[in-house]
Description:
Blueprint: E1 2-3, E2 8-11, H1 25-31, E3 42-45, H2 50-61, E4 69-73, H3 75-82, E5 84-85, H4 89-104, E6 111-116, H5 118-122, H6 127-147, H7 152-157, E7 159-165, H8 169-189, E8 198-202, H9 215-229, E9 233-235, H10 248-264, H11 278-300, H12 304-309, H13 312-326, E10 368-369, H14 380-385
Parallel strand pairs: 2-3, 3-4, 4-6, 6-7, 7-8, 8-9
Antiparallel strand pairs: 1-2, 5-10
Amino acid sequence: LEGGAASVLVRIDPTGETGVAVGSASELGQVLEGVFVELAPVALDAGFLGPKAADWLSSAAKSSPAALLQFHLDPLGAFAASGESPGPIESHIVSAATVGARLADTYPKATLFLASGRVVHEAGGGEAAELAFAIASALAYAKALVRAGLPMDQAFAAIQLGLCADADYFAVIAKLRAARRLWARLTGASGAPCPARIEVRSSQRMLTVQDPWTNMLRLTSAAFGAAVGGADAVVLGAFTDAIGLPTEFARRQSRNTQLVLMEEAHLGRVADPAAGSGYVEALTDEMARAAWMQFQAIEAAGGIVAALGQGLIAQAVANANAAREAAGPPKIVGVTAFPPTQDAPVEVEPAERHRAEAPPARLPGPDSRCPPLVPIRLAAPHEAAR
């Protein structure tokens, strides 16, 4: 269970690898005990168990029409990350859309799908590839919701974009601004214009194991970029995430970073403060054009499912990693630049796994497969070399 200042993200993880095992409606109810879903937005991260977890969350919300739920159904993200799906991936998309359409009337304030490019970012992909993946996923989900019975405008309104923020806050600001342009073009062309809603999660690939205290600065930069870029929700990880489960101190640091930026730096007081900056406007335009070209290539290949199966997404990520490697060793504070002269270890929570009995995620039919997008850490090769 991870909580920000005013929201809750629950990872449905029957293995217990993230510290809490949730595999049923009763267990999710225990996790959310004392949480007022009408006041605190509650989001899920459930992979292929998304449709079942959505029903569990619905049970916990007790059909309250004022519940601020974010079901975050995202079978495409789970498929891209694992490289296979338990049953046809198309069936998982249809199942998620069917459940989402059923829950839409009960929870008018809820979002149903999370069209996230996070899996591309964490595997090493560039900003344009991340944006293209998110937009292509959003289109696939909108089509599925329309087939499930929702009108086009309601379908797009029920989808949230998911992106990552790293320490390069100018790139983050431009990426979020480009995402809104892409969303406006996509929804406008579909005849259902609506404002984009963007959830930003801090990058895991930017974190270091060596001198992890420097991760506090990276996370602060990421949160700054997300806020200035206009994110609607920010999920900020802990500075020890690359090592193990966060302690109470690490979680408090993550929360207080957001509170200081919000309450003392007043980052939310101005809408799009980077507008008019020649550098940011040019970078935004460059990212939007590159992402739209990659999105068109995905659609020309037959859509995001076909592009994953053909390895087009994996190839784009591989090209970005190859270009990064060809550029030479990066400057990473605490690793390749200004390494620590003495050890300053940090504490993490012991990983006590408690497995939960969860229903199977398998659907009838043959498994779908694609080249998996394996997460990386940019500092890892250089930490191992020391």
